[in-house]
Amino acid sequence: MFERLAEPYLVLDEHLVVVAANDAYRARFGAAHDLHRTDAQPHGAMRMQERDRLIHALVADAQRGGASVSPVFRFDVDPAFHGEPSERGHYWRMHASRLLAAHDEPTLFALRFEDVTTSVLAKQDADMAAPDTLAFALAQAGLGVWRIDFDREQVTCSERCVEHMGAERSAERIANEADTNTITPDRLLGENVAQFAARQRAAAGAEPFEMERLVTAPNENSARRWILVRGIGRFDHDGQLSAMTGFTLDITARKERELALDARADTERHARARSDALAATMDQFVTSVSHELRSPLNAIVTWAEVLQRAIAPADIARAADAIRRNGRQLSHMVDDLLDSGAITTGKLSVNRVPIDLGALAAAVAEDVRKQAEHKRIELRVGEMPSCFVMADESRMKQVVWNLLSNAVKFTDAGHIEIALRITGQHAELTVTDTGKGIDAAALPLVFERFRQIAPHSSGRIGGLGLGLWLVKHIVTLHGGTVHAFSTGAGQGSTFTVCIPRPA
Fold first, then answer.
1. Disulfide: which of 24, 208, 250, 295 matches 8 by Cβ 3.0-4.6 Å?
2. Where is each Histidine kinase domain found (predicted)?
3. Are residues 216 and 115 in the same domain?
4. 481-485, strands of its sheet edge to edge
C-alpha cells in the first residue's frame, strides 16, 4: 500500500535518516538520500539543502506531538527524473506526522509532499489580472515607499520613490535589473537621511522621523523639487532595530508657497526694522540738530547783547571774538548737514585739482588754534613738507577741520599734534591727541553717522556726530583711506588719513 500511494512519501527515523521512500517520491525526486549527507545531493543541491532544512523544522514540530504542515515553497524537480519542469516552477507543501509504534520499536515520521502548483499558479494569474489595491492607492496618492534593511545594507523602494529622490537610474531600468530596485541608502535617500537612520539604529530609536529634502532630478533639466521623507524603525524579537520603512511625497508646490510666504515675511520684517531704525535715527537727528544749533545761536545772541552795551575796547573785542567763533561753528554745522544730505542721495561731488596738502593742513591748523587755546590745549604743528595731491581744496579743508575740531572736542588737557609725511605714493596726514581715547570695541563704530564714542562718565559732548562720518566719505571719494587708533579709554587717539599722490 505504501508503494502505491499517489503522493510522494518519505519515512524518516528520529535521526532524520531515510527509512523508506515510495514510488511516487522516486519518480518525482529521484533516489532518496540520507538528509545529513551533502556529498550525494542530486541536481540543484542548494535548493535541496533549503528543502532539507524545512524538513528538519517540520520533524522537530512533529516530535513534540501532532502533525505539522510547512508553508508553500518552490522546488524545481530534476527533469532527468520527471520530464521538463514547468517554466513557472513547482510548488509544494509538506505534511509531517509521527507514526504509531510499540514501546520497543523506534520512532518513525511520515513526510507527505503535496503538489500545490496548480492552485498557486492560478492564484498568481488572478493576482496579475487584478490590480494591487494598496499599490494603486499609493500611486494615486503620489506616495513613494522605501525600506532600509540594515542587515543587507540595502534600500528597497517603489518606482515613485525612485522618481521622487532623483536616483541616477530611471524607474523602468531599475525595474528590469537583477537587483530588483535595490540601491544603497545614501544614494537613494541622501546622506543626511541614511546617516540619521544609522544613528537611529545605534540608539534603537522607536520614534518616527521626518525631514524635507531638496532634490535635483537628473532627467528633468535639473528641475529642483522638495520631497518629504518620513520613516519609522522596525525591531526584531530581541528589540534590535533591523529595518526602517517609510514613504516619500513630493511637496514642491506647498514648499514653494511656504518659502514665498517666508521670504515675504522676512522682507516685511526687514522693512519694518529699517523703518524703525530710520525713525529712531531721525528722532536722534532732530534732537541733536535742535540742541547743537541752539547752542551757538544762543551764544551769538548773548554776545551780541553784550557787544551792544560794551564800552571798553577789551569787552568789545571779546564779544566780537565769541560771535565770530560761534558763527564759524554754526557755519560748519550747516555745511556738515548739507553735505550729509548730498552724500546720502549720492550727489556729493569733488573737483580735483593739484593742491599742496602740507600748506592746506597748516593753514587749517591756525584757524583751529583759537578753539584749542580757549580750552587751554596746546596745538602742535609737526612736519609739514610740501606735498601735492589731486584733491578738492574745500573738501580737504573740511577733512582737516573736522579731524582737528574732533580732537579739541574730546581733549580736556594736554596737546594735539598734526603732521604730514610722504610714504611712497601716498601722503599720510595724522592727528594725535591726549584726550579721552577710544575702547577697542568702539573703534569700528567711530565713523558711523550720528555716533559719538566717549566714556560714559564724561556725559554727552557737543556736536552732530557727523564729522568723522563725513571725513570717511570725503576721503573715500578721493581714493584714500582713514583709520582710527587708540590704546584705550583715557589714552588719547590717533586718526590717519592716506591720500594717493599723482604718479
1. 24
2. 288-503
3. no
4. 378-381, 415-423, 426-433, 493-500, 481-485
